[in-house]
Design brief:
The protein is of the alpha/beta class. The protein contains 10 helices and 9 strands. The N and C termini lie far apart (146 Å).
């Protein structure tokens, strides 16, 4: 009774606020046992899937909705119990068998059972591999399966988001009932159970347009969590290792840079000393050239009055000019200037001779 009260109160509010739409509601039988197999995009699926149907839908809800503490826990338990949700333990093993037994009792009472073949909400909006529990229920209860596709629910209220997005308009699409009477009595054949489950999920995929992933959603979530933990652990380890290493590297680099700078300074100092030496040598050569040039001029002056001396002085002046040229060629720019001063004077000396 509480189910219909809640629906009578919530239905107008949901329709005004979120403007949900529905297609194919006529495919759901009005009486008799049937299984409503739906994809699971968000928490809001519990509201929008039964909204357009004139009959009660009993969902197998996770037991966590009924075991919360405090005011929130009490409210959650009262609400889900009132709207016909049945708690099931999804830990596997014997818990799964008890959940199936609960589902069989619902169908035996001629009710409409809602179930999510994926077993949990999609982590990324894609459609994941179905678990074979839905096939066992269909074959053991000999009930038709109505494929159901929630549309836009993932965008409307993604996992972890409490407030829905009003700009997204959620919808539901019901397909034609699937008859598996050809497999009755084969509910213990694993290959048959897998084939029936895959056929149901395929029909849901056609209705929803989702991308299919041949992997269980629970396993995908577990791997994602493990990768995130490993990534955080590796990041922390790298940060710790990078601290001391960076300090040591900086010290080593600084020491090496200091030694290189010292070596460069020594090299520059040596080069400066060598340049100073060369400049000093050039200066001495220039002085020697000037001295020889003076000697040549003196010899040329003496030739006018002493021809015999010219015979001796001329060769000496030429030799002095040659020595000046040699000094210029070996001692750089300064020596070259000295040679330029010597050569014309030496020529005059030779002509005078």
């Amino acid at each position: 009774m509480f189910y219909w009260v809640v629906k009578a109160v919530l239905a107008p509010i949901l329709r005004v606020l979120f403007r949900p739409w529905a297609e194919g509601a006529e495919h759901v039988p009005r009486t008799g046992p049937a299984i409503l197999a739906s994809n699971h995009l968000s928490f809001s699926d519990h509201f929008f899937a039964p909204l357009p149907l004139p009959r009660k839908v009993v969902f197998l809800a996770k037991s966590e909705y009924f075991t919360g503490r405090g005011i929130k826990g009490l409210f959650s338990k009262a609400f889900f119990s009132g709207v016909g949700q049945i708690p099931v333990d999804r830990s596997g093993g014997e818990a799964s068998e008890r959940a199936l037994a609960t589902g069989l009792r619902v169908l035996a009472n001629g009710q409409l059972l809602g179930i999510y073949p994926e077993g949990t909400r999609t982590p990324d909006g894609r459609l994941f591999r179905g678990k074979t529990g839905v096939a066992r229920l269909a074959l053991e209860a000999r009930a038709p399966v109505i494929p159901c596709a929630m549309i836009g629910g993932f965008e409307f209220q993604p996992p972890g988001r409490i407030t829905p997005r009003l700009r997204v308009r959620p919808g539901v699409r019901f397909g034609k009932p699937l008859d598996f009477s050809r497999y009755y009595g084969m509910e213990n054949d694993k290959l048959i159970l897998r084939a029936v489950t895959d056929e149901i999920v395929y029909e849901i995929m056609k209705l929803s347009g989702q991308e299919y992933v041949d992997e269980y959603a629970a396993g995908h979530k577990a791997r994602q969590h493990a990768e995130k933990r490993a990534h955080r652990h590796n990041g922390t380890a790298k940060a710790k290792a990078a601290g001391p290493s960076a300090g040591e590297g900086s010290a080593a680099d600084g020491s090496a840079a200091g030694e290189a700078a010292a070596e460069a300074g020594d090299a520059r100092s040596a080069a400066g000393q060598a340049s100073a030496g060369e400049a000093s040598a050039a200066g001495e050569a220039g002085k020697a050239g000037n001295a020889r040039a003076s000697a040549g001029e003196a010899s040329a002056a003496d030739q006018a009055s002493a021809p015999a001396a010219d015979t001796v002085a001329g060769p000496d002046a030429s030799t002095a000019g040659a020595d000046g040229a040699a000094a210029a060629s070996s001692n750089g720019a300064d020596a070259a200037v000295a040679n330029a001063d010597v050569t014309p004077r030496t020529s005059r000396g030779s002509s005078a001779g």
